[in-house]
Amino acid sequence: MAGPAFRAAAVRVRVPATSANLGPGFDAFGLALGLYDDVVVRVADSGLHVDIAGEGAETLSRDEKHLVVRSLRTAFDVLGGQPRGLEVVCANRIPHGRGLGSSSAAICAGIMAARAVTIGGQDKLNDAALLELANEIEGHPDNVAACLLGGFTLAWTESGTAHAIRLDPSEAVVPVVFVPSKPVLTETARGLLPRTVPHVDAAVNAGRAALLVEALTRRPELLLPATEDRLHQDYRAPAMPESVALVNRLRAEGVPAVISGAGPTVLALTDDGAADKVSQLAGTGWAANRLTLDGAGASVLPLAVGQ
Hints:
This protein is an alpha+beta fold. It has helices at about 65-80, 100-115, 120-125, 125-140, 140-150, 185-190, 200-215, 225, 240-250, 275-280; strands spanning about 10-20, 25-45, 45-55, 85-90, 150-160, 160-165, 175-180, 255-260, 265-270, 285-290, 300.
């Protein structure tokens, strides 16, 4: 049986940073942020060439071990076969190991690019299958759902299959991220979580997670109580004491703040009038960035699109 046919032209995929958990929505909630990686992929006659600029340029592998390449390979297998060669160019802006979904961005960029460069790829790998494949590679759906769909996402698995719902966050919400200089491995952060938690804490989180859906989409004035967490942030404090201290300090000032994903970045959900002031509250040692919310998710764009 003949393998798939590929487009001669390169394809460009843009993928957003994401913040998962958002406080009480552990392993379920995700939010797409206006900070992007771009990946350009072209099918070549032979070999593999990987070029990286920006975040991770000094440390990431430029071979089959690169996560974008591994994701491309996985998707090509699903699509019917591997191309003879690949050229991959990555322009990375999402910090690595900081809880902003850099691995999910790489995975989504790879599988989106593989689908886009394969003739008939959309028919062989529809959007639902794309989410499922990203979940299989990543191991959980919260970040990849937000990366693929944009907006505010609720993700879950049922009978081993990943599902997600996309909601539009309120336009009044302005995210501010505080990025520390040192990363924390997701495996390290997850390793600090207990196997069981008190029933009262689980009950509080369930209520806050339900409230967060309303607060983030329609009533942002409720974001402070809605972002309270008792399931993961305090348990992870030994791996990121400065981050948890900043969360507590911001919340004491009335700012809805959480650990972004597995940390150590801190995410504040504020408004246009307060965002610049909030950006100044962390002090030295943090890179504070006022961002926008991303509504598009992973997108195939013209090669000439602006940076």
